[in-house]
Amino acid sequence: MTQPSSARMDMSNRAGGLGIELLNQFNYKVWRTCIESYLVGEDLWDVVDGNDITSPEAEATANDEIRSSDAVKKWKRLNAKAEFALKRSISHSLFDHIIGCKSAHEIWKALDKLLNKGNEPPESQLAEPTLTQERQEEKRPSTLKVTKDLV
Hints:
With 151 residues, the protein is mostly helical. It has one domain. It contains nine helices and no strands. It has helices at residues 5-12, 28-41, 45-49, 65-88, 92-95, 104-115, 123-127, 131-139, 143-150. 15% of the residues are buried.
């Protein structure tokens, strides 16, 4: 039995096996939320968001060689899975922007830099307000003062 053409067309805009719409220039915010949930659910988020971006190879000492070898294999496997999920979830028109990235974290940052047009602050700004943001808040008139003046 063949699928109706509308179903085939719908599937062509979906990430293979992930069930989310392919990332394009217009759906970054929705794509980011969906792919982040997928990566967290697959235990791949740490290699993407920067918590575990360094391969353990550089940190190994002679005494740690056997354990390090296993850690390196694990990191490479997780990074490759995360890279694959990210690459399979973006449109072909965006692929050239990430082709030179060497890790899932680099892909994530490249896509954020390219497509996050003020929709969401970068992750580094979510934790603490910047000095500029604090100064802007100080310059805003107080809501209480405005309400008081109106009465």
